[in-house]
Write a sequence for this structure.
């Protein structure tokens, strides 16, 4: 099942920990289509990490079933299952006594790849995650936090698994490194097209990264599962509305770029802005300058349309 | 303590002025008695220590693996190890005599006991030394429990095991001098003999004592050098 | 093989040894007191000399090399060698043994005092300095209480070391239960084993007494150390 992306189905999954009054997960049913970047988000205690670790059986299933491409995870041995799934955690967990290259080659070696192929794959991955080939011989202690996270990602991708599980991978990074890594994981997802299940407690990160977002509430209840745009446009209940914040309209506009939305016909007047600008930032400029309109220009600098506050408002209705 | 003591060696026989005056250090005596006293005592001392540490290492390793597997056993074994370590060496040697007589076996049992209880806590701690996130990552990647032990936990335990080994070697060398109270073996014996004289012969004490200290320091240094070669990942940055 | 190992087994010796203890409680008690006197004096010297030195070095985060070096050299010095060497310098009797044992006790006291104070959370010390505590107040009110568990552990190790080593001092006129152990000619094997049992009981008693004293006196400190150790939860 390597190479392509995998579909994951949670079928009425429940999990209770001994000595806790409320369940960690309560009858979770969720289908993650192949190739989706799915973000599990919610407050702590929402069972999102539990849901993630159930997939690779680091936590055992109480009730229900999880299927990857139609095969129940219970039909595979945990070890075989895990070797086919990439796994990235916040603390990264690089093996301190192995070099970067050895760390990346861990699963291929377990799978019995020939040494030459492992070396080739390692070099390829170092390039993909933006590290230098010479880094292969260094030890993890010699790297910065961001570099270690890249090695962790490369290690998870090593055997080209169809599914990648990421447990708050950027939680320990500084904001600038974090933003860069977020951009890169998006790019990587576009390039390699794997299914990614990503856990975070940060709704901003979820909106920015996810094709689909599953919001898990207290007691392991699935509050809403949809695209970021749909969740922002129409929160399912007060809990979701509170969780995504009062500025959800602006967040929604931040998801779209001027070049991607229908604009008013070019009518002249107002300052010019590029089509790569988000609608949210265009609204901000309109408010800041007290302009009644902005002219949107395309790649060559030619005007392609006009945006006004009223038009931005109408975009929220679509 | 009359058992096993040979006739008093006439150290002052045809001796130099230095020896007759019992000056602090007579190198002529050291040269003259290297062959019959100091050399053999040094060799015996190395033997006593090597055997004790080797057996202690194997037993402690087995116990540590057992305790790693069965976590409930960890604390009781640790408590027993601590209690054994508080037993005074002189007393332990004597208490073993009714079991195994005045033999090298008696000496080795005691020395193995001490090296075992020094090595065990370090080995047990070393096996638990692998950070939880590293073990989780390994498990998440599909390493079996056996592979986690062999490829992750054991290599990461090496620094702690080596520091335990240093302690064990140095303390066994020290305690092995007490074997002289039981039988004429090791570097403690020349000292023991000298102390029985109303005017203890200083050169013998300093030479044998110096050899014991030097042996300990040399072994310790050798192990430090070996550990640098064995754990390259700790050389830079983070200490393991 | 076991049979060969124990072919010299004389179970009767232990019965005789216990009888020896039962027959001579006063004599053994007096010898034990001698041993405690010697050990106590040596420990006191080590505490007075090495304790403050370790605390001061730890406070200034200086002299790690000295503290660690002392512990390495201290372990490499066999007790018998120390006792014999001090006998040649100071002559036979109480003083040479006391000094030798004091040197033995110095290692654990100095090392633990240093690392205990050196290891106090620097944020706490900085906060104390920020609140206007003087250097002396920082040492006595912040560093010493926080360092107490490790300090006491060092004292306990030193105490057991000197009590356990004191019998060896008998070869250098140190008196105590060691007198019996090294004099098989007079006391026979039963006496030697009996005295050895007393020595074992004595050092185990010191260990247990000091351990329980630590638990009673510093429950908070000990507790907080334990919490920190279990910080990383194991995932199974």
């Amino acid at each position: 099942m390597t190479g392509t992306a995998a579909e994951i189905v949670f079928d009425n999954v429940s999990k209770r920990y001994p000595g806790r009054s409320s369940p960690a997960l309560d009858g979770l049913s969720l289908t993650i289509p192949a190739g989706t970047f799915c973000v599990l988000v919610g407050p702590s205690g929402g069972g999102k990490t539990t849901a993630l670790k159930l997939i690779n059986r680091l936590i055992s299933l109480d009730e229900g079933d999880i299927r990857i491409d139609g095969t129940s995870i219970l039909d595979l041995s945990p070890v075989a299952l895990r070797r086919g799934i990439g796994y990235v955690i916040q603390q990264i967990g690089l093996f301190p006594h192995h070099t970067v290259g050895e760390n990346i080659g861990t699963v291929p070696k377990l799978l019995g790849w020939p040494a030459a192929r492992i070396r080739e794959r390692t070099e390829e991955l170092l390039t993909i995650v933006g590290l230098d080939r010479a880094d292969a011989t260094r030890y993890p202690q010699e790297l910065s936090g961001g570099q270690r996270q890249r090695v962790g990602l490369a290690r998870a991708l090593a055997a080209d698994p169809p599914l990648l599980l990421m447990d708050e991978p950027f939680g320990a990074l500084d904001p600038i490194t974090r933003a860069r890594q977020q951009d890169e994981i998006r790019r990587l997802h576009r390039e390699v097209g794997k299914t990614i299940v990503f856990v975070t407690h940060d709704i901003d990160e979820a909106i920015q990264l996810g094709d689909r977002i599953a919001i898990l509430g207290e007691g392991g209840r699935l509050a809403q599962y949809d695209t970021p745009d749909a969740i922002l446009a129409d929160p399912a209940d007060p809990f979701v509305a509170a969780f995504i914040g009062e500025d959800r309209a602006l967040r929604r506009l931040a998801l779209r770029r001027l070049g991607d939305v229908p604009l008013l016909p070019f009518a002249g007047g107002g300052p010019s802005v590029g089509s790569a600008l988000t609608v949210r930032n265009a609204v901000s400029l309109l408010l800041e300058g007290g302009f009644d309109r902005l002219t949107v220009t395309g790649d060559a600098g030619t005007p392609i349309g006009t945006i006004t506050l009223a038009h931005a408002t109408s975009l929220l209705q679509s | 303590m009359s058992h096993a003591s040979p006739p008093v060696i006439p150290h002052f026989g045809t001796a130099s002025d230095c020896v007759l005056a019992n000056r602090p250090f007579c190198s002529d005596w050291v040269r003259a008695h290297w062959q019959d006293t100091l050399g053999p005592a040094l060799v015996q001392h190395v033997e006593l220590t090597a055997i004790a540490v080797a057996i202690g290492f194997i037993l402690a390793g087995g116990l540590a693996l057992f305790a790693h597997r069965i976590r409930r056993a960890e604390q009781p074994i640790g408590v027993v190890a601590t209690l054994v370590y508080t037993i005074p060496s002189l007393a332990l040697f004597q208490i073993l005599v009714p079991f195994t007589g005045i033999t090298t076996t008696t000496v080795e049992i005691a020395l193995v006991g001490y090296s075992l209880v020094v090595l065990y806590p370090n080995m047990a701690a070393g096996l638990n030394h692998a950070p939880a996130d590293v073990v989780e990552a390994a498990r998440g990647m599909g390493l079996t429990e056996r592979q986690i032990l062999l490829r992750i936990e054991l290599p990461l335990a090496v620094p702690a095991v080596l520091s335990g080994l240093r302690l064990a070697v140095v303390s066994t060398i020290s305690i092995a001098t007490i074997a002289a109270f039981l039988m004429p073996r090791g570097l403690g014996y020349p000292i023991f003999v000298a102390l029985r004289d109303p005017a203890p012969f200083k050169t013998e004490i300093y030479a044998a004592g110096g050899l014991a200290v030097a042996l300990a320091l040399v072994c310790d240094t050798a192990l430090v050098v070996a550990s640098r070669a064995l754990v390259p990942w700790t050389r830079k940055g983070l200490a393991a | 093989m076991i049979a060969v190992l124990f072919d010299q087994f004389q179970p009767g010796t232990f019965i005789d040894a216990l009888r020896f203890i039962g027959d001579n409680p006063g004599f053994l008690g007096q010898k034990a007191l001698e041993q405690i006197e010697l050990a106590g004096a040596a420990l006191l010297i080590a505490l007075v000399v090495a304790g403050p030195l370790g605390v001061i070095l730890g406070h200034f985060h200086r002299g790690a090399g000295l503290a660690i070096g002392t512990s390495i050299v201290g372990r490499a010095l066999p007790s018998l060698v120390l006792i014999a060497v001090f006998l040649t310098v100071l002559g036979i009797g109480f003083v040479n043994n006391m000094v030798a044992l004091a040197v033995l006790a110095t290692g654990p006291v100095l090392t633990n005092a240093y690392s205990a104070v050196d290891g106090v959370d620097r944020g706490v010390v900085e906060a104390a300095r920020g609140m206007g505590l003087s250097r002396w107040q920082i040492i006595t009110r912040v560093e010493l209480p926080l360092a107490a568990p490790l300090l006491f552990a060092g004292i306990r190790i030193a105490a057991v070391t000197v009590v356990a080593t004191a019998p060896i001092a008998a070869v250098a006129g140190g008196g105590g239960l060691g007198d019996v152990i090294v004099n098989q000619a007079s006391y026979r094997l039963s006496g030697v084993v009996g005295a050895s049992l007393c020595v074992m009981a004595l050092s185990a008693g010191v260990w247990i007494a000091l351990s329980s004293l630590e638990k009673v006196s510093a429950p908070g400190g000990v507790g907080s150390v334990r919490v920190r150790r279990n910080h990383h939860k194991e995932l199974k």
